[in-house]
Amino acid sequence: MPKRILVIGAGIAGLATANALQQHGHDVTVLEERTDTSSGAGISIWPNALAALDEIGLGDAVRAAGGRITAGAMRWRDGTWLRHPSPQRLVKALGEPLVVIHRNVLTSVLAGALAEGTLHYGVSARSLVATADGVQVGLSDATTTQADAVVGADGTHSMVARHLNGPLGNRYVGYTAWRGVADCSIDPDFAGEVLGPSVEFGHVPLGGDHTYWFATERAPEGRSAPQGELSYLKAKFASWAEPIPTVLTATDPARVLHNDLYDRDRARQWSRGPIVAVGDAAHPMRPHLGQGGCQGIEDAAILASFVDRTNDLATAFGRFGAFRGPRVRSLVRESKTIGQIVNLPTLLSAAATRATVLGPEALVTRHLATIAARSAFALPTDRDVQPV
């Protein structure tokens, strides 16, 4: 039976979830507090998320809107190769190339596939009250609305996750991050990361003669550059291997995003009754595996599959959390570990990152496949539809 489902948040996870639920015949409304959603840089959509998008029916649209990448290089700051896997090996292991796409383009593709009138901007949910027949939602415009269920896709600072778990604190991780888009192209063979002591820089072709880049650096919380963030980065990376200096020179300062990184307390409860959290609301993770948005897309397809298997939304949501928890928790841990290693104090960081060459390439590729290959995405089977 079709349900009336309210999705809170129109980011990647929220829009993907709304699409997946609509395609299963449900009446979906999406609320987004922001009125300007144009900010953002690039995002990598790995084959596991492309497989989930195929399940939703949007995989080809996303592939067509982004650039396809087959390299996964890792170099030291002087240009020395730490890892240089062959594109053929990587594509064979992952099932297809990954797609790099501007975040705004991705959300436009997802939003454009929704039924007309689904999205409502400039309004947020302020309170949730479970009732005998669903959820009563108090809105920021002082009105209330009723739904059979609520999906919280409202990010790391999620109101829904805090409704389910109580206070969830944030802790600065010890390093800060920048992201940007450069008006230049790079050799696809260099797509990947360049490492230095307590610093990393990544760059990947974005398509259309643009390059998405990101950087992290061990730094005090709240530090800013008086001369401007891009000027600081140009000086910081001036002696690093090309194409980093060229990429930064070709970047508009207004398109540089700078954010300190935080870990949030684990949300031990993803659902209660007809309320569930997905994406960063349920399981925020550091960016080092490139899986934050990808796991939100996996959530969308899998949640819709569980909802399709029972008329009891509370049961579907509970099964969803039990099914997704083990995979996502392992990725959160691994991403955190990588960030801690890269951003160790200078001497330890240099030793640890250079030691990455010691792992056999085949072993590294096999492990990457368990995270990001098409085969890493799995829908629930009949065995997973059990009481929780």
Short description:
With 388 residues, this protein is an alpha/beta fold. It has helices spanning 12-23, 47-56, 59-65, 87-94, 103-112, 159-165, 229-236, 244-249, 292-308, 313-342, 346-354, 361-372, and strands at 4-8, 27-32, 42-45, 67-69, 73-76, 81-83, 98-102, 119-121, 125-131, 134-139, 144-147, 149-152, 170-182, 192-196, 199-205, 211-218, 257-264, 271-272, 275-277.
Structural write-up:
The two termini are 22 Å apart. This protein has a 7-stranded mixed beta sheet. A 6-stranded mixed beta sheet has the order 8-2-1-12-19-18. Strands 3-7-4 form a 3-stranded antiparallel beta sheet. The model has no long low-confidence stretch (mean pLDDT 92). The protein is an alpha/beta fold. It has 12 helices and 19 strands. The chain is globular, with a radius of gyration of 21 Å.
Keywords for this entry:
388 residues, alpha/beta, 6-stranded mixed sheet, 12 helices, 19 strands, globular
Structural class: alpha/beta
Question: The biggest beta sheet, please?
Answer: 7 strands, mixed
Shape: globular
**What does the radius of gyration come to?**
21 Å
Name the helicity range.
Answer: 25-40%
> Low-confidence parts lasting 5 or more residues at pLDDT below 50?
none
Give the tally of β-strands.
19
**How far do the termini sit from each other?**
22 Å
